[in-house]
């Protein structure tokens, strides 16, 4: 070695001619000292700390080539050396490992509690028997707990959820078709389809009834064939009722000419849905100017051209024979219309007797509604609908109901100013016990206490609660409609009253009464309400809506379907993600025409199947 050659420093006993910086040599030495035991004996436990992002006791990931078994042995030692403070790894194997560990911990806890109970001086051999008795009592009080579904698994394991739902819907449709009289369409529907297919060649329908004309009109609208020519064929002279489900293609001049010919010929009912621009001042003038008017029912929807004065003139001209008035979404109607009803249906005017009044989605003020009830024009009313009317509040309801003596149906849906006071007024004015339908959908200001008082018996100064057949309490506040409220309503629907005014409860014996239509969507009812429905209304209930009721389970619905009789044919379950195939495919009436509406998904390119 020459004097000019660089001197190679020894590497602590390691031969070689590497020229490494001191910092790198120190780092390599530290790594070697820390990992020497693991590298020399990879099957042995690692003594150093675990990874900062994983828990070796719960993770299925091992850094050794010998896998999970040896990791299990070393996990406890490692965690004890670290003080047990580690973070959980979020991988799927680690999650499964954590679940297994939690299950083992729970089992060990149960065994420890059992051992402690057996060794305790307070333990008695009859404790287990008492516990079984308590369980049996709970099952007796809640029989739906024991319900078990019987799903028929006809699909293979490769079928996805969409395929299963599609098969279920097809099976349900076959059942509905079979219950309606067979899979082959009826002769009536075949004739309607054939007639609509070639309706362009039809000049007149002749002497056919109102139901047939309605079916033809519905089919024409569904197939996009409802035009002016089709209207002329439907509205032929001599018919007693003109009912159109959609008047979008009918002009006002065309309707005016038809009314001028139909009314003198004996037209008795005029029902126009989606009237739009066809029913305006000209159409009203055609009715007013006709002699010999015999209209007893007028129902107009969506007539945005009809003014307040036109509606008042229409009521004045037809009040002698008119008994049913219905207007929906007619934005120009106001005070003059209400005054005309109060004036021309009162006893002083000598007009007719108004039996049905329906005002929906109308911008009527409180002043107009109070004017409507200022006389005795509503004295004989059987059905009152004030749905989503701006001016309706407790004062209006009180003022109008005090004029009515035998109301059978009332609809106050979507009126935000109605409170529990209106409930009390409805019950006070039901002295004749004639109320059978009550719709309070979307009323947010009523309370559970108000509903309980409405349906409760034996309240001094109040008549008995109504024996309802139709009840709609949907879209109220979540905690308003609960199990207690519904139980009172069900029992009230089964009460029967003796002729002397005393009441006799026959909840378990009356078979011909009870709720027929019930809508409690958006409520907090539970399976207890399903059990009460099965106990009280199994022979009367035909349709139930429990959409968006998260506390109702498969067992409650399955128990109700198994106990209800065959008149119960439709249930709505929209928004209930907790309802599973155990009920949808396992209830007792699969394939018998029982409709479950809401357990389906939207098909691509088509509207939702309902």
From TrEMBL:
Residues 1-67 are annotated as: Disordered. GO terms for biological process: SCF-dependent proteasomal ubiquitin-dependent protein catabolic process. Signal peptide: none annotated. InterPro entries: Leu-rich_rpt, Leu-rich_rpt_Cys-con_subtyp, LRR_dom_sf. Residues 30-46 have a biased composition (Basic and acidic residues). Residues 47-65 have a biased composition (Polar residues). It holds the Pfam family LRR_6. Residues 1-10 have a biased composition (Acidic residues). GO terms for cellular component: SCF ubiquitin ligase complex. This is Uncharacterized protein.
